[in-house]
Structure formats: C-alpha cells, structure tokens
Amino acid sequence: MNPTDPWTADRQRIVVLGAGFAGLWAAIGAARKLDELGIGAERVEVALVDRHAYHSIRVRNYEADLGDTRIPLDQLLPPIGVRHITAEVADIDLAGRRVIWADGSAPLAYDRLVFALGSRLVRPPIPGLAEHAFDVDTYEGGRRLNDHIEGLARRRPSPGQWTALVIGGGLTGIEVAAELPGKLRAAGGGDNASRVIVADRQAWIGSDMGEEARQVIDEALTALGVEQRPGVSVASVDPEGVTLASGERIAAATVVWCAGLQAHPLTRCFPAERDRFGRLPVDEFMKVKGMAAEFAAGDVAWFAIDGRRSCVMSCQHGRPMGRFAGHNVVADLLRLPMLPLRIDWYSTILDLGPWGAVCTAGWERRVASTGAAAKRTKITINRERIYPPRSGDRRELLDAAAPVVQAPPPFFR
Ligand SMILES: Cc1cc2nc3c(=O)[nH]c(=O)nc-3n(C[C@H](O)[C@H](O)[C@H](O)COP(=O)(O)OP(=O)(O)OC[C@H]3O[C@@H](n4cnc5c(N)ncnc54)[C@H](O)[C@@H]3O)c2cc1C
Questions:
Q1: What was the pLDDT predicted at 2?
Q2: What is the rounded average pLDDT for all residues in the chain?
Q3: Tell me, which fold does domain 12-121+262-343 have in CATH?
Q4: What's the CA-to-centroid distance between 179 and ligand 1, angstroms?
C-alpha cells in the first residue's frame, strides 16, 4: 500500500478507519454534510480506510449462503467522492495526527479522524482452540466453516464426523447452532448421523436474552434437534473434538468458537479509560472523551445511548453512531454546531434457523413476535435495511446517511 498523499496546507482531510457498519456510514455521512455545505474534495477530502476492498455485512456470517454479503467499496464511494484506501492500519500517532500503516508506507496525515475499526472475537488460551476451532466473526471465518462442512463427506469416517459443537450460547452461538443441522444435512450427514450441540459456561443457553425469549429459544432449538449443554467449560480442543473441564470427551469434527467479543486492540492508542469490552468513551457527538480531533463509532466506542444505558456492540447502534459521527466530524472541523445522538428504542431479533426467529422489544426484552413472522423481520433487516443503496446513485447514497434516528424495524405478526 502506498497511498499518494495530495494533502496540502489549504486542503483538509477527514480520515475514517474501518469500512464496517460504523465506518462506512461515517464516511458517507461526512460526504453528505460536505455536499450540503457545497464544499468539494479540493477543500475537504474524506478518505475511508479498510484492510478489505469491500463492506462486509458481518451479521450474516453464520448463514449458509454468503454470496451477497460483501459489497465492493468501489460501487459505493466513487459516486460520492470519498477516497478509498485499502491498507492495514498498524498504529495511530495522536500527537502528530497521522495514521501509521503496517507495510511501512508514508503515514497519512489527518485533520479529523473517525476511529471505527470494530471488534474481534477473542480466543482464550485454551489448548488447541486457536488451531482447531472455526468462527463466524469475519466473512473469511464464515466461508472457512462452510467449506469445512461441505468437505465433511470426504473425510475419513470418525465418531464425530457429523457432530458440530458450538461453544458460546450467546446470540451469535445460537444463530450458528440453529443453521448447523441444515448445513450438515446439505453436506451429506443424514438426519440420524448428524448432531449439533451448543455449550456454554452459563446456566442457560441464551442467558442474555431474558426469561421470555429464552423459552422461545429452547422451543426452537429442541424442534431443530440442537442439544443444549449449559454449565460446561472446555479444557482443550483437538482435530477430533473437545475435552471438557469435567474430563468428558465430545467427539466433534466441527468446533465453532462464539464467545468473547472485544473492541479493536488499537483502542489502546487513546489515553482514555476503556470499558470491560475495551471500548473508548465518547460523548453524545461521538467525539472521544478528552480528545480534540478524534471521533469513534461502532464497536470501539460506548456512551449512554438513551441518556442512561450503554450502547450495545451491534450494527443496530453502530450504523447511527456512524451517521452522526460523519455529520459531526465535518461540523467540528468547520466550527459548526454538532448533533447529539440519542436513541430511545431497543430491539433484538435472533435468527433461529428454519424454525423462524424471535423478536424482542425494549431493554427488558419482551417477546414481540416469534416463528415465521419474526423471521420475516430478520430477513428484512439482514437483506434490506442494513444494506447501503447499491444503485450507484449519488443522491440516494448521501440521503441514506442523514443524521436521523430510524424508526424501529417492523415487527411482522
Ligand atoms: C455472526 C454475527 C452476527 C451478528 N448479528 C448481529 C445482529 O443480529 N444485530 C446486530 O445489531 N449486530 C449483530 N452483530 C454485531 C455486528 O456485526 C457488529 O456490532 C458490527 O459489525 C460493528 O460494526 P463496526 O463498524 O463497529 O465494526 P465492523 O463491522 O467489525 O467493521 C470494522 C472494519 O474495520 C476493518 N479493520 C479492522 N482492523 C483493521 C486494520 N487494522 N486495518 C484496516 N482495517 C481494519 C475491518 O475489515 C472491518 O471492515 C453480529 C456479529 C456477528 C459476527
């Protein structure tokens, strides 16, 4: 990577790091605000940086068909005049206001920064976990898991050939587990041969979802034939399966690790106290507390989203955080008033595979719909609501990044 650096003293630059749900929308949001002010790229440049040349619809990585989950950035950015840099960020020089690249190319100077490098699944030092467990944290991880399952029929027969063990019974683990019976069946494991287990240390699978939704999850997993193993912990993983702390052995050719999300490690560059997920504190304008030129949005940042409760690492919050960060970073640069973000609604929509889904409304997670009706909501979100416009139309793209809070998703009944 060697981005040419046409930066001059009379031209200012906004750099957005990360083209995920927060970063993509921050970059489009900044372009929208500059367009509104009639300011062109010759005066303020917006540059969006990601290690990939695509925007990943990360929330779909548990699905069987990942064909439409990567949207090339060169379909989105040229119409709105945002510069795209494909590069690995290694560090941020806050004092010098420069982004440092992993390949040692000349650093990129910024006047304002939006830090949106997201989160990553953390693997604890359980023997064999790093080498033998799959994940769905990234497109590449989801693809690797699906390729492995498609290849199971060609493996030497073994006791765990058609057994899949998901470790982590949170939202992602449940979505993965609910898809696995279908994936194993399609790969050649008969209904009788294949076995899916979801295990967790906690006393319940889906313990974050509240009592009402947990009953729905239990009903769905039982109907799908997914076994639940709460209250267990994994001591080691090997190519043939897992050994639990109790000494019990589970033969499984497919082990998927779904526990332990942490904010991006480059949050450590900032002199701010991070929360237990490693997130940076931001104010209601998405500016990193204590910083003059740096904003943060998405999974790397936290603030009280409704004035009381911390935002959740989710695209539900990451996308509006990005839109507001994009608006505010331009406003701050040009000394205009910034807009505070406040969202008074919260919902969760959990995919339960062929059984359907469960939608909850409110922070107390009251069940709002279940089964096929909830699945329609999930499909609308995963395949429409969270996608950027793909028409290539400049106006449509800019309008989609307006700093407004969307209404809650429709709950079909
Ligand atoms: C399987 C799964 C299901 C999920 N389901 C839901 C759901 O139903 N609802 C919901 O709201 N949320 C869900 N989430 C969470 C959601 O995906 C995240 O909260 C969201 O992606 C966060 O957006 P972000 O922009 O902060 O980070 P990301 O989307 O992770 O984007 C970060 C970007 O930074 C780039 N990057 C990282 N490091 C570097 C580097 N050093 N150099 C250059 N580029 C870099 C990455 O390539 C990536 O494009 C799910 C997550 C997973 C994995």
A1: 42
A2: 96
A3: FAD/NAD(P)-binding domain (3.50.50)
A4: 20
Residue in 52, 314, 360, 365 to alter for ligand 1 test, most ligand atoms within 8 A of Cβ: 314
> pTM, whole model, 2 decimals?
0.96
**Atom number of ligand 1 nearest to Cα 300:** 26
149-197 pLDDT, tens digit each:
999 999 999 999 999 999 999 999 999 999 999 999 999 987 678 999 9
pLDDT at 7 over 60: no
pLDDT tens per residue across span 348-397: 999 999 999 999 999 999 999 999 999 999 999 999 999 999 999 999 99
Nearest Cα residue to atom 5 of ligand 1:
59
59 lines ligand 1 (CB under 6 A): yes
| Per-residue pLDDT tens digits for 254-299 | 999 999 899 999 999 999 999 999 999 999 999 999 999 999 999 9
* SS3 letters across the chain: CCCCCCCCCCCEEEEEECCCHHHHHHHHHHHHHHHHHCCCCCCEEEEEEECCCEEECHHHCCCCCCCCCEEEHHHHCHHHCCEEEECCEEEEECCCCEEEECCCCCCEECCEEEECCCEEECCCCCCCHHHHCECCCCHHHHHHHHHHHHCHHHCCCCCCCCEEEEECCCHHHHHHHHHHHHHHHHHCCCCCCCEEEEECCCCCCCHHHHHHHHHHHHHHHHHHCEEEECCCCEEEEECCEEEECCCCEEECCEEEECCCEEECHHHHHCCCCCCCCCCEEECCCCEECCCCCEEECHHHEECECCCCCECCCCHHHHHHHHHHHHHHHHHHHCCCCCCCCCCCCCEEEEECHHHCEEEEECCCCEEEEEHHHHHHHHHHHHHHHCCCCCCCCHHHHHHHCCCCCCCCCCCCC
Average pLDDT over residues 225-231: 98
Which residue from 21, 62, 264 has its CB within 8 A of the most atoms of ligand 1, so it is best to mutate?
21
Whether ligand 1 lies within 6 angstroms of the CB of 56 is answered as yes
> Which CATH architecture does the domain made up of 129-259 adopt?
3-Layer(bba) Sandwich (3.50)
Delimit the CATH 3.50.50.60 region(s) of the chain.
12-121+262-343, 129-259
Atom of ligand 1 nearest to the CA of 90: 41
